[in-house]
DNA sequence: GGAATTTGACCCTA
DNA sequence: TAGGGTCAAATTCC
């Protein structure tokens, strides 16, 4: 997958590229579906694994195109957040006697150094200490602030966690700085590194033991099908741990078998970019029953609608 | 008793 | 100046 030059990516060509990649992905998914439905009679010489890798490549390429495009139009066209509303912290500052003068003691960090993930859990395997919580304007849920427990050993990693207004079971986690400590994850997680050179390329390689930084990780989240029968549900509860532990051992195998076990994989890719880009380009891949749906975070769009992409992305 | 969390105050940046 | 990030004392948990 090549990094696209944002300078040369013309307004029309980026759309075409995206459409081409997504259509390619859809076709490959159709082939994979046929193969999975009837493995014995399939004519395709390509293996299921190769097909799935190809699907991921298509989505990754699409994301790369989208990311590049957002970089180009970026902040100039993003409407400013409404700054109206009343102040939550009112009153003049009353400096208590004996309170240290904190002027100049910290600098607000730049959002461009951040990475964002969307996940159904706050857990990421690292040890964090909460140091603050804040009510955010126009947000139903407070934002929680965490720093690495090894802060006093020099580790500067911090993260902010906030529930997503539109989907309160999901958490948006923003990471700042990398872990410089030698911390090991507290619990095993299915975290798969993407290509360090190509941030949007999803790979199936095992995570590198020496690097627990969240940059460009891809997480697989699980959720249950709503339409499971009660019996299935019970069985499912019993096998939850088994399913998850097998996932840890062989994510690929589990991915291939998830549909029958009542789980649907959602792949969340992390984009290193400006905050707006993160919102637009954080994407999931829903292996849903209507398998022609490409699930983008924030909007679900039918691949067949891509011809009308101007309506889908009027911003650009 | 130490570690972790809560919470109000302080201060920086847009 | 409003909104949000961090500090640190107080409180809670183990």
TrEMBL record:
Organism ancestry: Eukaryota, Viridiplantae, Streptophyta, Embryophyta, Tracheophyta
Protein name: Probable WRKY transcription factor 70
Gene3D superfamilies membership: WRKY domain
Residue ranges of the TM segments: none
Chain positions covered by the region annotation Disordered: 80-111
Subcellular location(s) of the protein: Nucleus
Gene Ontology molecular function: DNA-binding transcription factor activity; sequence-specific DNA binding
Ranges of compositional bias, category Basic and acidic residues: 92-104
